[in-house]
Prior knowledge:
Layout: H1 14-25, E1 32-36, H2 43-55, H3 72-78, E2 85-88, H4 101-111, E3 121-125, H5 133-144, E4 150-156, H6 164-167, E5 171-174, H7 180-189, H8 196-202, H9 206-227, H10 232-236, H11 242-258, H12 262-278, H13 282-290
Parallel strand pairs: 1-4, 1-5, 2-3, 3-4
Amino acid sequence: MLEPIQNTFFxxxxxxxxxxxxxYQNKTLPHSMIFYGEKGIGKETFAIRFARFILSKNKQxxxxxxxxxxxxxIKQIIENNCLNFHKISxxxxxxxxxxxxxxxxxxxxxxxxxxxxxxxxxILINPANIMNRNATNALLKLLEEPPENTxxxxxxxxxxxxxxxIKSRCRLIRFSRLSNDEVQKIxxxxxxxxxxxxxxxxxxSVGKLKKILEEKKLIESFEKLLKTPTEINSLLKKKLSKNxxxxxxxxxxxxxxxxxxxxxxxxxxxxxxxxxxHDLDQKTTLLLMLDL
Length: 292
């Protein structure tokens, strides 16, 4: 399934789209909004859809925020080649999970460049609730005196950690879970086969469904690994996330519990504790886990 910035297929959140489209027609769109709701339910996908429409120079008569499939704005946003679209997320050059003040200052510099009167700008901040205090204060000044024809969209799973002063200057828009039918159609569009059980476990979240399918692949790889040890190299070459490592840890625990091998369970728990506390090498930890 495609990432939001590449995805042109959209389902769900029709009420939100209808209300915002009416605001667009009436020229009453808010200059700042917070899209909030559970992970993986389409908040950023909707924000990108909205941005494409607002920034498109080839708008057709429409009743929603869709654009033509050959609209240049789609490619421009994907290739980060649109001067009027700016996305801010976790700083890729730093290990900390925050949006820092330097990123907001860089944005302020870009916003000093004037745009034509008939043009618009979209600023997307995701996730907004990982901004540190200095970044939040810098953003607040922008929201208090927003540049002309500029719309800010902040995205968050929860409104926690977003200052009241930020929330008070934004329209708060809550996104709900997708229906099972909508999730199924999104999976069908991307030629992704899913079972009824996987659909129910997704609980209306495409993001959660993707995680379920990734874990399914891990289970298959792990089971194959147990049967054919020569496959170990392919697993060791992969860079696994912390969640993936924890998932594999739980799988090994299950195998050992089924064997009633409590001594090895104790060893594994000690290994896992050291891995998390002392940031042990992933490859070494995997080898030790699989050697139990």
